[in-house]
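For the sake of transparency, this paper describes our internal protein records without simplification. The remainder of this section carries one protein's record, kept here as part of the documentation:
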Amino acid sequence: MTYDEAIKRLEEIVRSMEQDEALSMDEYKKKAKEAKELIAFCQKELTGMEKTLKEALQ
């Protein structure tokens, strides 16, 4: 998965959670867990990019 794919999926999750008021608690928890994992992935990618940029600029 790429950073852009993860961001797109996060946007889809948020949109579906905002629009679908009939989500069961289990569905809500499942989507929240996936979102949390995607956020962690994106943070890791951004940290890696920051490190790469710092090394390139030194």
